[in-house]
Each structure stands twice: as C-alpha cells, then as structure tokens.
Structure prediction request, 727 residues.
Amino acid sequence: MPLYRSHVLVCGGTGCTSGGSDRIYDAFLKEIEAQNLKDEVQVIRTGCFGLCAEGPIVIVYPEGAFYSKVADSDVKEIVEEHLLKGRIVKRLLYKESIEEGQIKSLNEVKFYKKQMRIALRNCGVINPENIEEYIAYDGYKALAKVLTEMTPEQVIDWVKRSGLRGRGGGGFPTGLKWEFAAKAPGDVKYVVCNADEGDPGAYMDRSILEGDPHSVIEAMAIAGYAIGSKQGYVYVRAEYPLAVKRLEVAIEQARQYGLLGKNILGTNFEFDIEIRLGAGAFVCGEETALMTSIEGHRGEPRPRPPFPAVKGLWGKPTLLNNVETYANIPVIILKGPEWFASIGTEKSKGTKVFALVGKVNNTGLIEVPMGTTVREIVEDIGGGIPGGKKFKAVQTGGPSGGCIPASLMDTPIDFDSLTALGTMMGSGGMIVMDEDTCMVDIAKFFLEFTVDESCGKCPPCRIGTRRMLEILQKITSGNGTEEDLEKLEELAYSIKDSALCGLGQTAPNPVLSTLRYFRDEYEAHVKEKRCPAGACKALLRIVIDKELCKGCGICAKNCPANAITGQIKKPFEIDQSKCIKCGVCIEKCPFKAISKKA
Amino acid sequence: MIKSIQELEEIRKKALEELEFRKQHGEGIRIVVGMATCGIAAGARPVMLKFVEEIQKRNLKNVTVVQTGCIGLCKYEPIVEVYEPNKEKVTYVKMTPEKVLKVVAEHLVNGKPVYEYTIGYEENKEANN
Prediction:
C-alpha cells in the first residue's frame, strides 16, 4: 500500500455534492495529475463533515487545513500553493479556523468543540466506499467480538445496559426491543433498518448512510446474531440516490470480504442484507406501513399490537430500528455499555444527531451529548441567528413535534424534557426560527405536509387534518374567528385520540404546541387581524406616512392595482381593499414614506 | 474473504498505517519542509519525498511530513525543521536526499540530532571562514 504525503478529503455528502463537490473532486484529480503529484497526494471523497452551510468542504491533511465554500476555480490554487509549495491558501480557510494567524485544528473550531461524534464518528473521516478504511477505524471488530466472545443474551444485555433508546423518534429502549424479538417464538426472523426519514428539514440518516454505511451493516449483523436472524433489509427512500449507491457498494464489499453471507469470520453465523427502495411516502417511515411496503403492498399502517417484534415482516418476528440507532451499536460493543451510559442524561443516554437548519448561521449536521441545551446548540454550535435578528423558537420532531420558545432556551435536550415541553425528539430535525417567523404560518406549513402525506386509511387523519388546515388558512388570511381557535383545538385533540398510527396521532402537535407557547399570535390574527411577525401576506397593510409623503404621485403611477390615489403635493393614500401588497410602491417611493405594517 | 479475527486485525493494521496522519497533528514528531519558490528551486521536493519514503520504509509511527512556505533564510535552502514534543526544534539547512537518510536514522530513530547539518553549525563555519 503506497504511503501518500498528503490526503485531500472532499466532502461527498448530498449537501456538498449539490454544491458541486463532484466537480471539485474531479478537478483535484486532474490538477494533481497535471502537477505530477499523483504518487504523493491522495484524493478521497468522504461523507458529510456536518458544516453544510459552508460547503463544499475540502480538508487537506496532515495540516488539517479546513477549506470552506470551495469552487472549481479554487482547486488550481490549492494544488499549486498548498500541495506543491506548502502555502496554505488562507482566503479559503473556514474563517473560524484561523485565530491570530494560527490555524486551529478541526476539533478546536467552535462548531465541533461542543460536539461528540459517536454515530457520526466516521462521517467526513473515512472514504465510505472503501471497506478497508472502515476496518482501519475498528470496523467489524464489534461483530468479531460478539461472534467469538459473547452469547446473544450477553449482546442484548449490553444493549440494555447501555441505555440506548430508539433514535427514530419514539425513544423506546433498544435493548428491550431486541429482547422481545429474540424471545419471540419462530425460526425465521428479520432485522430491518428504517432509513425512510421523511421529516421536513431532517437528513441525519441519509448522512450516516452516505458517510458510513458499514456501521449500519455491521450493527444489523450484530442484531441478527443477537435475535437469531439470517436476513436483514434496509428500507431506504429512492429519493436518497447517493445513500442507496453507497449502501450497495458497502454491502457488496462486505460480501466480498466475507463479513456478510455464510460462515462470517469463520464462524457458523450467517447473515445477509438486501436493500428495499421506498417511493418516499412519509407514512412508510411508520414501522407497520414500512413492513407492508417491503412485502410489496401499498404502504399503509395497521393497528398495533401485534408489535413487529412478535408479528412483523411476512408475519415473522422482526426487529426494526432506525439508521442512527444502529450506528451506535458497534461503539457500544467495543467500548462497553458503561461507557455509553456515562454520556447523556439520566434517562437518555449517549448522543443525538440533529440536522440544524433554518435561521441559524451554521446550518448543518451536529451530534451532541443528550442534555445539551437549546442555547448551546443555537448560539455556540450554530453560531447564532443571522442578520442580528432575535431568536424566537426551535421546532423539533418534524410534523410530529412542536416548538421550544426562546424563554425555554436553557432546557437540556433529551427524550423526556422534550416530551414535557409538548414537543418530541423525533428523528432529529431542528428548525431554528427568528422574529420574522409567524408561528401560525409554521403550524400551517406542517399541516400542509401532513395533509399531503396522509395515507388516507383512517378518517381522522385523512379528513381531520384537512379541516384543521382549512381553519389555519382562514386564520392566516385574516378571516378567522375566536370560535375557529376553539374548533381547531377540539379537532386537534380528537385526531390525537382517534388516528390509526403514530403519524396521525401526532399530526396536530405543531398546532397544539404553537397554541401553547404563542397563543397571543393566534389571537392577534383572529382578533386584531394582524400578523405580529409580519409574515402573513394577507394581514399586512402597506401604508403611506403622511409626514414623509411629498405628494409626488410616483407610487400611484406605479401601482398595478390602481389602489393609490391623491392630489399632487398632498399626501397620497392607499385603498386597502384594492391593495394587492406587491410592494412596488415601497420600492419606487423616493422619500421612503411607504412601509409594511403588521 | 476474511476467515478469522486475525485476518481482520491484519487488514486493520495495514489500512490504519495509511490513514495514520489523517489524525490531527500536535502529537508526535513533525517534519516541516520549506517549500516556497526558493526552497523548491534549491531542491526541497526530492528532500521531502525522501523523508516520506524513508519514514514509510522504516515504518515510523507518529511522524508527519508537512510543508511550509518561505522560512526566510533563502541562502540556506532547502531547510527542514524537526519539531518534537517538549524539545527545542532542530533546523537543518542545505538539505539533500542523502542527508535525509542520516537525519532519519540518527535523529528520528535514535533521537540524536545531526549537528553538522544544523543551522548553528553552518553559521559557525561561515563565521570562522
């Protein structure tokens, strides 16, 4: 194996790829070839580094120079200056990584400092399409350990003692789930990985599959050993082509290396994995719908019990965990359950990956110990709110979750504290909102999503959420009444009680949670026909300041709706019933006399 | 096909060697080669490559080879600085691939800097002339 003097790591996550990192990768290969550095410098495409807002990202080792927002045209400079002459290209360095002329290493950058990467341990570190790099970082060692040193009961006991809870959202104790599946009678059992991830704004699972597919494969094999299963399925949405491709490559390599298939590592253990593609329906992330979809039917949920652990895929006992849950398993086996249980809070052990998105400077993928506060995440890791705006709330848990208002920013985040606040962990989407966000509008956004994605099997979800959406539309258009608010709440509670699956039962949560913390905003919409955040277009008024207006008439000439009238040299006026709120008059007014009013 | 844990371990060790220096620097020995225009013109590239080659050949762990820009003493190029934790840095001047062999053997392996290649030795020599 040749030794290179320098490694160039180009982020190959979906975020950076859409920012052109594929072209950058190719440009590096070309330029390095042209400069005759082929034998000295190796170029590697990795998984997501996490700092998606600053992508495309390139890291050059051994210096650990962290280049952000790299363009194709920068490649030549990096190769000529850094790789050929050893001069780090300062203008391209991630700005936080330079301090007093010193370049800080990756771990010292604020974005990474408060993070602890367990599930993401290899993302951005190894080449996900090279099994040997995974093995180099202790890959498949946990599988080897369980196969040779541990009984299935011991494995389950360790997972139980680690305190790991399901990272898909519900937070059910993983070890207990494994135990149920192991104890369920039956010779044929299945291990399933839920990689359907449909929450708006969430992409943790995708990034793990793209950046470290082998960790999921290894964990599924360990699960297979623990519960007595020979066959695993990864259910992943077809909308994640890069994740599917990396997973395919990884499964194939694992088979070649004898880490999947028969007689794994020279033992009698047999296990293989197949990929099942989903069409990207939100409901297929729900476990019973997911299994129905794998069986080849339309993905609709069914009532539970029976739970999958007893009667799952094709009626057989099935263990179903989410991608992130699996990614934690090999580390627990290698470092021990006590180590894992020492991280996090009393009832939520370990770390959680969040997709930090919305109105925050460092959008990206982060992993923090359970118990980290919202403030630490938004201010320290996220780098605060852009444009000097005020922080208003974070939304967690996607359409099944709710909001944490600014006043509760110091809440340590774990499964139970979030539930107590009326939201939930969910898969880990975390949407940051600033003062310009209307909370009624946010609730409407999530309801629109649920209405679109409802599978339609049960009336509360199919009809109820639609009725809720209609009321929200009425409120944001300025036609809501106080009775509407009551009706909205009543509907929300009855859907919660009567929907068939977890998705329907939680669909009203965004409304209930915003009503809980931002009721005054709903009331402003209903009683005063006003949107305090100035986001609901229908409720905005465009007004002319009489003091500032010089009566030039430019606004009236430009108004497409003929809503502005007046006499030259006297203040003009806007007829609110004709105004279409296009804002042209604001732009055209030479005296800045026209403005939007909430 | 990996048939045993021993085989897995062998692959792990081999692959890890290649990835060793993707770990953050700060620990271990750092060899910094001046690679500005003056350095390259004076022949710094073959010097650096010789370091890489020798380190690999001898399977030295914890040694990274890094480039830097102009160190500022162009007449002594190629310049190589060796940083060891808790020790004063050693600056080698007018380096050649042949000199590298000796530096690796005596300094990196046996912990004895090669004084006759260092900048202090060169300066004294010039002062005495």
